Amino acid sequence: MKGNVIYGQSGGPSSVINSSALGVIKEAFNNPDDIGEVFMMHHGIIGAINDDLIKLSKDEEKELDKLSHTPGAFFGNVRYKLQDYSSNRKDYLSILSTLKKHDIHYFFYNGGNDSMDTCDKINRYLIQAGYPCKVIGIPKTIDNDLECTDHTPGYGTSAKFIANAMEEIDLDNASYPQGRVIICEIMGRHAGWLTASAGLASLSGYGPDLIYVPEVPFDMDKFFIDVKRIYQKKKRCLIAVSEGIVDSYGSFIFQVGKKLDSFGHARLGGVGQVLCNNVNDELGITALPVEFSFLQRACCRISSAQDQKEAEEIGREAVKLSIKGVSGKMICIKRLSDKPYKYELTTADLNACANYEKKMPLDMIDVEHSFVTQKFIDYALPLINGEVENRFEDGLLRVPHIKGYNC
Amino acid sequence: MKGNVIYGQSGGPSSVINSSALGVIKEAFNNPDDIGEVFMMHHGIIGAINDDLIKLSKDEEKELDKLSHTPGAFFGNVRYKLQDYSSNRKDYLSILSTLKKHDIHYFFYNGGNDSMDTCDKINRYLIQAGYPCKVIGIPKTIDNDLECTDHTPGYGTSAKFIANAMEEIDLDNASYPQGRVIICEIMGRHAGWLTASAGLASLSGYGPDLIYVPEVPFDMDKFFIDVKRIYQKKKRCLIAVSEGIVDSYGSFIFQVGKKLDSFGHARLGGVGQVLCNNVNDELGITALPVEFSFLQRACCRISSAQDQKEAEEIGREAVKLSIKGVSGKMICIKRLSDKPYKYELTTADLNACANYEKKMPLDMIDVEHSFVTQKFIDYALPLINGEVENRFEDGLLRVPHIKGYNC
User: Fold this and answer.
1) Burial class for B29, CB neighbours closer than 10 Å (0-12, 13-18, 19+)
2) DSSP class of B299
3) For A168, which of B177, B291, B299 is closest by C-beta distance?
4) Which candidate in B91, B143, B209, B307 is catalytic?
5) What distance in Å separates the CA atoms of residue A405 and residue A55, rounded to the nearest whole number?
6) In whole angstroms, what is the distance from residue B120 CA to residue B348 CA?
7) How many helices (H) and strands (E) does chain A have?
8) What is the pLDDT of residues B265-290, one digit of tens each?
9) Lowest mean pLDDT among A7-16, A381-390, B125-134, B215-224
């Protein structure tokens, strides 16, 4: 069935979500017998609801190629919880109206577990409404917490940023006769995959001394003992900590770990600041917090070529399968081996991927709960591999400028 | 006169100080008629005072090549104010003893304006003591605030990091239907060169809306008006601010700009946090601070090939000139043209470079005091140009491991 394509981006940006967009766009342009026009939702599902679309032209293919190294969600993302059909018919009718108006019969949605829930709901609605449309989910999240897939596009590049940043910071700190305790706070409220990637730096001979993830309880007293021991021995100490680490009761350390200042007020700040304050007070050692903030998810200047390649392949695969009649699925990566790294693309039902959070297995975390195991290194190392060339012009990342959209 | 070489690193690290070290080392190895052994001071002048040296071997040249993409000050830096000879004879006698013991007649010191002061003092002392030794200063600072040179090695790479980081953050922020006010705090207590480099991002079509440097007074009321106007128009606002911006009385904003919280206590944080708190309170808009912290000076993963090349050339030039008998000088870069970018290496007297801080000229700052001018762009753009290849192995920066030193 010939029809037009719609594609949307959803949830927090990753460094390679636009590579998946590029895969969809290129494969759609490559299949003129099946696909006519290519539309992007402006700000994800809100764009479909409001008929706010960006129509792409094959004439702009050269400009669109720059998507492979463009940070952010270039066509606009959104965090919007699509209600059940019974609670909010209006959204579904608006989406259907947009699809009909533009003769769209291929629907691709690129995001994490919440976005797969949106995608699943739309698929079930369209079947019920009798509107012929292939619906496929394209995975994306730097957090790597999606079920059904070995890993998610976006994770490899953020992991590479974090591993190299930890190496850089440790070498900087090692310059001084007396270094510092430096505590790097890394994204991940419930899953430690990103923070764990700091451990890859150890292959360089530098990197973090201690790594704390939310999957296992954080012990403040043991933390003090470890920091003191390492600092006395090395004259420096580098720590990677997930924003969402918890104590043995499951309470967030950034909430319960705070000591009061001399006026009896709780100090402000995330877990990095909280731990630094505690190290200063308890051990009398100056500790400095570092937050990677937006840089850890917008780090196109240090993309993993492997990650970018997989992101684009998955976008292409979504289009290929939809043309073959597949629908209601998310594209998944199945790992075949670590060394050499081999994988194949598969699919899973959208409702099997939606809403679940995949955490790190305990055999990737060391028994002391303060580092990663070799099993994690073997898992993560292939995902940060390879450099992307020709991204810069005059020393700056160059991104697409599309007529009528951003220029 | 044949003799051995000593080289030391001093002050805060930069991303290319180890490229200057590599230049010295390679050029020294290349001149066996004039130079015998090559010694590195362990932690700068303290290493010379304590006879704590690292002797390098030509056999390790391949490993040493990795210095070109190694962050930090690989041989150890130091912040040590060498007193005048009249105040502390002991240090000078210790240095002389080390030089004599190891038959050293070539002395190279790599750092900023304080380090050039150290270098100048040692040069004058050795002349007075009648010890034959060529003494040459090698410039380095990410702050770009050294006199006598068009720019300093280290600035280009940090400027490239900042420009690309600002572009990445703006694209991330642009993803959302409603973006945020994001305030990036950048190093530079007295000179705005680094913060100004954020303006280079504008060539990509993205980047900061407002840039504030310490050379001109910061006006809080005008700041609120500008942020409000930009946020209303663009639904996002990105700001680059030097840590050392001051008000019209010359007082640091991070000290005087703080509002009291509802309990009457001054809030903590640097200027980024202070401005965010004020935007939240005054405009009712959520503002988030970002600090680039160590990443802005240890960013070897995004080195400017031009900066790295110049850093190595300057190290080589120091050795070449010293063999020709030059002493008491710092190597300088003289710009011949912006487009195409051309330069030559010259020298200046050490005492002309020592201790002074070069600030941005006012014609590089716009009349509104909230952005840079085209003159700054033309000045800085050539310095961030070119990519460095082959720095990674399995996705990680690979750094030297020298027997008896760090392995």
Assistant:
1) middle
2) -
3) B299
4) B143
5) 9
6) 12
7) 13, 13
8) 555 568 999 999 999 999 999 999 99
9) A381-390
Between CA A11 and CA B176 the distance in angstroms is: 9
Establish whether the linkage from the previous residue to B340 is cis, with ω within 30° of 0.
yes
What confidence score (pLDDT) does residue A259 get? 64
Known catalytic membership, residue B219: no
Q: What is the CA radius of gyration of chain B?
A: 23
Give backbone dihedrals phi and psi of A42, rounded to 5 degrees, phi first.
-85, 110
Task: Give the ranges where B271-332 is alpha helix by DSSP (H).
Answer: 271-283, 305-323
Residues in B touching A197 (Cβ below 8 Å) = none
Contacts B43 to A, Cβ<8 Å: 176-177
Q: Distance between alpha carbon A304 and the CA centroid of its chain, in Å?
A: 13
> Which residues, numbered 304 to 333 in chain B, qualify as contacts with chain A under a Cβ-Cβ cut-off of 8 Å?
304
Q: CB burial class (10 A; 0-12, 13-18, 19+) of residue A43?
A: buried
Nearest CA among B84, B86, B4, B74 for reference residue B43: B74
Q: Please name which of B353, B312, B354, B314 lies closest in space to residue B331, comparing C-alpha atoms.
A: B314
Distance CA B187, CA B252 (A): 14
Phi and psi angles of residue A252, each rounded to the nearest 5 degrees, phi first:
-60, 130
pTM metric for this prediction: 0.96
- Which spans in B175-259 are helix H? 193-196, 220-234, 253-256
d(CA A18, CA A74): 6
Residues of B in contact with A304 (CB under 8 A): 395
Query: Which residue in A184, A181, A165, A162 sits closest to A272, CA to CA?
Result: A184
CA A18 to chain centre: 12
How many CB atoms are located within 10 Å of the residue A178 CB? 9
Instruction: State both tokens at A298.
Output: 């917008």
Taking all residues of chain B, what is their mean pLDDT, rounded to a whole number?
94
Pick the residue of A69, A186, A293 with the most B CBs within 10 A to test the interface with B by mutation: A293
Residue A265, Cβ neighbours under 10 Å: how many? 12
Phi/psi of residue B302, nearest 5 degrees: -130, 35
Q: What is the ipTM of this complex?
A: 0.95
Percent of chain B with pLDDT over 90: 89
Buried b (16+ CB within 10 A) or exposed e, B143-153: bbbbbbbebbb
Please report the pLDDT score of residue B189 as a whole number: 86
